[in-house]
């Protein structure tokens, strides 16, 4: 494990209404982005990349059955992706894993003209943003 830098994120735990659906969408995405499964138990799983890990858990303490990113709390997670080509490939592949493209009329510049990204939403309403580190690798 890499030594973390002061102030970096330690982990994020996301409670999901249906673990199998979350594994099909979020689990697929995390593994595709290079996260490795770290722990696995009946109601959850965690993935590790460097010193940071993400947890998906279907907790018995849930008070709702659908995530709403417009309520107070976490709106979405954004991940660095190597380049525009990879953003586009992931956006296309994501459709086979329970994701739909948000703001298709503005894609890939929904975040502005200098921000190349795909905004995706899964069946449970969870949003991720895939942001190109180098949107124009030939430049």
Automatic annotation (TrEMBL):
InterPro entries: Fosfomycin_Res_Enzymes, Glyas_Bleomycin-R_OHBP_Dase, VOC_core. Residues 8-133 form the VOC domain. It holds the Pfam family Glyoxalase_4. This is VOC family protein.
């Amino acid at each position: 494990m890499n030594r973390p830098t002061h102030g970096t994120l330690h982990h994020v735990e996301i409670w999901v209404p249906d673990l199998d659906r979350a594994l099909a969408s979020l689990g697929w995405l995390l593994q595709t982005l290079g996260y490795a499964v770290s722990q696995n138990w009946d109601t959850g799983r965690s993935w590790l990349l460097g010193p940071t890990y993400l947890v998906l858990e279907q907790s018995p303490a849930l008070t709702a059955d659908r995530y709403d990113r417009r309520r107070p709390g976490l709106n979405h997670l954004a991940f660095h992706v190597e380049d525009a080509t990879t953003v586009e490939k992931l956006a296309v592949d994501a459709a086979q894993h329970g994701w739909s493209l948000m703001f298709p009329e503005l894609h890939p510049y929904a975040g502005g003209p200098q921000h190349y990204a795909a905004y995706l939403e899964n069946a449970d309403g969870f949003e991720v943003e895939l942001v190109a580190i180098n949107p124009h690798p030939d430049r």
